[in-house]
Amino acid sequence: MRAARRRAAGIVLAVLCAGGCAGAPQPKLPTSEQARSDLIKAAQQVLVDRCLTARGAAGPPPRQDVLFGSAPAELSVTLATGYTVRTHTDGCLAEAHRFLYGDQARWFRAQVTVNNLRAEAQARLKDDPGYRAALARAAACKDRDARCIKASGLAEVRGRLEPARLAEVRTAHRGDIATYDQLRDRALHRAAPLLAAHPTLHQKEHDLS
Fold this sequence. Notes:
209 residues; two-stranded antiparallel ribbon; mainly alpha; 11 helices; 4% strand; disordered N terminus; 2 strands
């Protein structure tokens, strides 16, 4: 029995070591948000370039229908502001997103929603009568006169109300924010080893930012 257990333990250890004991160390992840965004952006460019080359559409310039997709847009998100954002699933950009984020549809919805939280908060300002009154005063200013607009008090009212409205919106979309953070973290861990094999391109992206 003990011999069997030792053999089983040895097999498990061998499997674990094959997955990481003797492997190369994982690339160090950046800590700042800007550096993380740059890393994901650079990895996305590597993936897009590979896809365009494989499809014979690298250019220059790259074929836009291959980059963004040419089939009817299959994904859409209608925002609380009334706008609808759509995207394709057949282009090289979509393929890169699937590699990095795992689920293109979930990422698209989360990204569009999170990127428009402030716009939704600003739309909610119109529910406040004080804001509507200040907005009307500003709209009545002739030729967009800066002094008149300042005197309307619109900026002060917006500055006072917007933080609370933004907090409300973030609470309402906490699920989308959690998904955004989760998938972005996944993309970061997928991007780091990919960029480790393309340090020159990553440095070029960093220099241009």
